[in-house]
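seq as requested:
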Amino acid sequence: MTENILKRETESYWAYTQCESSIDKVICRYIGEGIDDLNGKSLLEAEIAYARNKNNIEVETCDTLVLLVGLSLEPLLQSICVYKPQKIILALNEDGYPVPAKGARYDTEEPSVFAKHMEIAVNTLAAAAKILDVKPKIDCSPTKDNEVFKTLVKALHEEANVVIDITGGKKSMVTSAFLYAAFSGARISYVDFDLYSVNNRRPWGYSCKIGELDNPYQDFSLREWEKIRVLYNKYQFNEAFQLLTDIKDPMIKELPESEKPIENLIKFIKFYDQWNIGDFRSAKRAADRLQEEIGKCKFRLPSAVEILGDHWYEFNDDTILHTPDPIYDNLAKLTVYVCDEMARIERLINYNEDYRSAFLRAGGVSEIIMLGRLLDLVENKVENEVDAKMDLLNKLKERTPDAIMVLNAFLNKKEITIGYKGDIEFYGYRKKNDPKIVVTNETLMDPWWQKTDMFKDENNKKGYEIFLDKRNEAAHKYFPVPRRWAEEGFKFVMANFEDFLDQVKDDPVVNCGTCALRRSEHLSQPHFLQPIRMNCCTYALPWSELCKLCKVDCFLTPNLRRDE
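struct tokens:
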């Protein structure tokens, strides 16, 4: 099969199209009739074979092929043969298509009528199994030029492995389709030709080159929505909030219907940012407004916001307007707070790679747990006109004792004195002549720090002393903290918390306000770098659910609303 033979048969086909007004007959001539000089192949089949032999076709098949339908059907039929789709979506011009008609130079056919010609062509291709293996399902989407983007969002809402062929259609349709493909990550195909017949004003079909265009979305990560999705999934809410705020006005200008969904999304991300920085009171107020404004939507709040939010700290600039009662003696609130903090430490390690903050935070949470142990021992009774527990709680609003003193007391003393020159003393609490508070520690504290690798007892030095030394070094020196320190710090605080829950005097049912699980149910699982196994909510809504709740899924493509 030579180029000269292909030229001759192509010119014969062109001559036939000039005298035959039936589009269906023209199509059948092009794809259905075997030609002896082409080794029994149809002209279309011979063109594809010739192009493959010249290495002008280098694409993989797809599941769904989108075709912008213009007046030249031959390139579209070539594309179908190459991609062998299981489904074809025809983007048709809503204004119709000019075709030769009796008594007039041109008439106009409705898009649905014109689509029938393509359906006949596809059926013929499917019958010739050498060209097309299966009979694809065909969907038609008549659309105006400026509506192509929205049409494709709707038509491809659940489709995967998509190729968008931008060869046909008007320029305005091509532009919108390209933008959609770049935005969604779909493959972009174009049928080009090396040779063009000047006399016939048509390309030579056998010189076709079918390939895929570079996608700026994939190559340069230019789409801000993708960045917002990534930032949200990494709990970098402030950065996501800033970026979404930046693109809000340009996005609304292009898609006016996106205004309310984007505003809702901004409010949600701001709410999660307030929670993530520990401002539970502001987060609770924001959540209440969200649940009222967005169609009275219901979504699960982080437990720290739900349980602690109405009673948490409140600031006005740098002034504290409200200080909550300490949570050390409230097992439910303390549990919720610690679970929330441990999840935050995990995120600092895994998402932010901020090992210094994670390590220092682990030290702070561990000290809070130790104060919870202490308050659990203090009887709520009056001695010498002093309500011991309330007296201690009030002092803890102002100051906390040295962590090493609390740890040493629990490890070494069965009777622990709190006060002037006692086992646990801290500045300004209990003057020389004030009665000491004495509590009974029935069982010396288990060496839970031995569960770590870095902070085991070593050379007559307790593991918790090793931890506190490293914590103080990290706080007062400027060296970077390695990841291993952060991971071992997380192990340290987790071991402390599990041992604390196992020792508290309260009923063994831990009720954090959203759950009531016996400790054995969530202490039987390995916890290192895993959320503690209880029904405390310490996470934000999955991105896909948030998109649906805010209704941004109505205009975001599948890859931009997935979770990962």
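The two ends are 50 Å apart (CA to CA).
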